[in-house]
Design goal:
Number of domains: 2
Structural class: mainly alpha
Strand content: under 5%
Radius of gyration: 19 Å
Low-confidence stretches: none
Distance between the termini: 52 Å
Order of helices and strands: HHHHHHHHHHHH
Number of helices: 12
Mean pLDDT: 88
Helix content: 55-70%
Largest sheet: none
């Protein structure tokens, strides 16, 4: 039955594809059904190519969003499937979909895109294929930041910190991989925004350290997402690190 469902991903009816992919994502997110669906995907040679085709050719925002969510679940739960993604066709399709969502001001749909690239960069040797897309990634990151709400005039809400830290780390890694640290700094608008955020995070860090010296209860604001973002900002703004 699962194989039949996955074969239907080769269809062309967007509403049907949307429902199928939502079903797939729901089952992949369920710990009980996850092993069955991963096994079915491993056994269906056409499943990931079908999703890649949708990413590269569809303009349906909801469909693109759920494609990213499904792929993110798949590679996060089964690194053996990451190898499928290390090819130019997949990378081009992923950036085509991300660019369309960003252009349609659907930046909130891109959280899975950033985590997907992070996992692939960690699990595979895809980085060399991503280096030519560094400028596009910077643009997507800046647009994603612009599309978030604000916790303060210069800082996005805490719920976005982990995604931002992950995306910024990837951009910095690509800069280092291309040896472009000095010759190709971050885009001016993005750099200015990141500097403002970094200064605000440093102020929060200093306040927390002062409270700790006074013996006050430790604040929960300096969690893992804070340190991930703070470290990512330090690396991005200081190429020598």
């Amino acid at each position: 039955m699962l194989q039949m469902v996955l074969q239907l991903l080769g269809g062309s009816d967007a509403p049907t594809l949307l429902q199928l992919l939502r079903l797939c994502h729901t089952c992949l997110a369920n710990r009980e059904s996850l092993p069955l669906w991963l096994a079915a995907i491993r056994g269906a040679d056409s499943c990931l190519p079908h999703i890649t085709f949708i990413l590269g050719n569809s303009i349906n925002e909801e469909l693109l969003k759920v494609c990213f969510q499904v792929l993110d679940c798949v590679v996060d739960e089964d690194p053996s499937l990451c190898s499928y993604c290390v090819n130019e066709e997949f990378v081009t399709a992923v950036f085509a979909a991300a660019g369309h969502l960003s252009a349609m001001e659907k930046q909130e749909f891109l959280d899975a895109f950033w985590h997907l690239l992070h996992v692939l960069d960690y699990e595979t040797d895809i980085r060399d294929m991503l280096v030519p897309w560094r400028d596009k990634l910077e643009t997507l990151l800046f647009d994603w930041l612009q599309g978030q709400g604000q916790e303060s005039p210069t800082l996005p809400p805490r719920s976005c910190w982990r995604t931002l830290g992950t995306g910024l780390t990837l951009v910095t890694d690509l800069r280092d991989a291309s040896r472009a640290s000095a010759s190709q700094p971050l885009a001016r608008d993005l750099c200015r925004r990141l500097q403002e955020m970094y200064q605000l995070l440093q102020s929060r860090l200093q306040e927390a350290q002062a409270e700790e010296r006074l013996g006050l209860p430790r604040t929960d604001s300096l969690d893992d997402s804070f340190h991930l973002l703070n470290n990512a900002l330090e690396r991005a703004l200081n190429p020598s690190l």
